[in-house]
Design a protein that fits this description.
Layout (H helix, E strand, L loop, with lengths): L1 E6 L5 E5 L4 H10 L6 E5 L5 H12 L3 E5 L4 E5 L7 E2 L1 H4 L9 H8 L1 E5 L12 H9 L3 E2 L1 H5 L2 E5 L7 E3 L5 H11 L5 E5 L5 H12 L3 E3 L5 E5 L7 E4 L4 H13 L3 E5 L7 H9 L3 E4 L4 E4 L10 E2 L11 H9 L5 E4 L8 H8 L5 E3 L2 E4 L9 E3 L3 H13 L3 E5 L2 H6 L3 H7 L3 E6 L1
Parallel strand pairs: 2-15, 3-14, 6-7, 10-11, 18-19, 22-23
Antiparallel strand pairs: 1-23, 1-24, 3-5, 4-5, 7-9, 8-9, 11-13, 12-13, 15-17, 16-17, 19-21, 20-21
The structure holds ligand EPZ.
Ligand EPZ binds next to helix 1, helix 5, helix 7 and helix 13.
């Protein structure tokens, strides 16, 4: 198994170009099933999850050309489409559920074996299914009790659907299903993430009629058919946030290129509270942590536009070296503090109680053998390794490879002392 070896590093300096968004490209790839015409997606990040989604679409009958060296994927779902997603692929990536709406549109059927819970929570899909039932989809209850979504429908009909929680995946699945349903669908308490807006932009370019993406109410007027599309994926706001935190916690100065600062308002505000200097230039966003000590601050994760849960562990890395105590409250996932134990191996002395963590700060961290407990936590322990004395050895780094393209190369270009070793 591969590992990262991370040594205490000089302040990060230089520039980094952010890759396309993993959480935008995955639903957009699923949306290619909604048309028989060619869909060309650019600025696709070369990530393991993208490869898995390509294999999933191929297994369903689409033809997929993946050229990740050029960060592009071409998908043409013109042939017969199968309605059963192979479990060996679904268990590798829970985002496989994103094909559910498109499969029902194309074939009137969908069988997807749900993976179990994961490090950060049980990841239910009842909101996805609530929306589809409202649109006339029949879900086999006995199969569902066995962890299998077995759905069928003759014709999807528009409906008004309220999401009890603004679930990103449920919003994406329902919006995709509604694009070709009969009539109008109103989705209330919808997720507002930028990745939802990017998906809606792609679907509208394909001929869909979607209004309100990015707000809590999305209206979708069903149309007869959708056509092919060519689209550049938005930059990955979480990768950008991760490098911004790295710049601040190492006391460096980094130019972040290919970024939409508007997608990171909460993270920018919080980094400024920690004393960072952040400003936009023609080339990108400059993030400076060399203006003084890192102040402590408190974080509460919320659905967008609140502070993103995916930035919780990278930001906690920063707070371990901030001056004074900080409080982090995780409200989105029920078990997203697995990284606390890893920070504590390095001397962070963090205490947790339920969804609340107290980070004392003012710590001189020591390198240790740590584990990446999810893809964002893996990046977070790399960041603490950059400021810890000695060597930090990070294992289970396949998690990191799922969400960060060329992570080691990008960090090394900023002066980080990190290398990947095969065991
Ligand atoms: C997406 O996951 C992202 N993944 C996650 O990023 C991200 O953390 C999450 O949204 C929240 O922003 C992709 O886009 C591929 P949710 P998703 O449905 O859609 C509960 C990463 O690091 N919920 O918004 O699965 C659920 O249990 C990954 O890139 C229900 O209760 O997230 C969770 O507590 C990790 N019932 C909360 O909502 C449901 O039916 C957020 O889940 C659905 C969700």
């Amino acid at each position: 198994m591969a590992k990262f070896l991370v040594q205490k590093s000089a302040p990060l300096r230089g520039e980094v170009k952010i890759s396309g968004s993993k959480n935008a490209v995955l639903p957009i790839m699923a949306a290619a099933l909604l048309t028989e015409e060619k869909c060309e997606i650019k600025d696709v990040p070369a990530l393991r999850d993208v490869e898995v989604m390509c294999r999933l679409l191929e297994s369903l009958g689409a033809s997929v050309e993946m050229d990740l060296a050029q960060n592009r994927v071409q998908i043409e779902a013109s042939g017969k489409i199968s309605w059963e997603a192979p479990f060996d692929l679904v268990k590798m990536m829970r985002a496989s559920i994103l094909v559910l709406g498109a499969l029902l549109i194309r074939t009137g059927r969908a069988i997807i074996h749900l993976p179990g819970g994961c490090a950060i929570g049980k990841r239910p899909v009842e909101l996805h299914l609530k929306g589809l039932r409202a649109m006339g989809v029949d879900i086999d209850e006995a199969q569902l009790n066995r962890g299998i979504v077995d759905a069928k429908v003759d014709k999807l009909c528009g409906s008004t659907i309220y999401l009890d929680f603004p679930s990103v995946g449920a919003t994406e699945v329902i919006v995709m299903a509604a694009t070709l349903a009969d009539g109008v669908t109103i989705l209330e308490n919808a997720a507002q993430e930028p990745e939802i807006v990017d998906l809606a932009n792609v679907l509208n370019k394909m001929g869909a009629r979607i209004k309100g993406a990015g707000t809590d109410t999305i209206k979708i007027e069903g149309v007869e058919r959708l056509k092919g599309v060519s689209h550049h994926v938005i930059p990955d706001r979480i990768e950008a946030g991760t490098f911004m935190v790295g710049a601040v916690m190492t006391g460096g100065s980094v130019l972040i290129k290919n970024i939409v600062a508007d997608h990171l308002k909460a993270v920018i505000a919080k980094l400024r509270e920690c004393g960072a200097e952040i400003y936009m230039t023609d080339e990108g966003l400059v993030v400076r942590g060399d203006r003084g000590p890192v102040n402590s601050t408190d974080i509460k994760t919320l659905p967008y536009p609140g502070f993103p849960t995916d930035m919780q562990s990278p930001f906690m890395a920063l707070l371990t070296v901030a001056k004074g105590p900080s409080v982090v409250i995780e409200t989105v996932f029920e078990n997203r503090f697995m990284h606390v134990g890893e920070f504590n191996r390095m001397g962070a002395n963090i205490k947790t109680n339920g969804n609340c963590a107290i980070i004392p700060g003012d710590k001189a961290l020591q390198g240790a053998q740590v584990v990446a407990t999810d893809l964002r936590a893996g990046a977070a322990v790399v960041l603490t390794g950059l400021v810890a004395d000695g060597t930090t050895e990070v294992s289970q780094i396949y998690h990191v490879d799922r969400g960060y393209e060329n992570f080691v190369e990008k960090l090394r270009a900023l002066g980080a002392n990190i290398m990947r070793v095969e065991e």
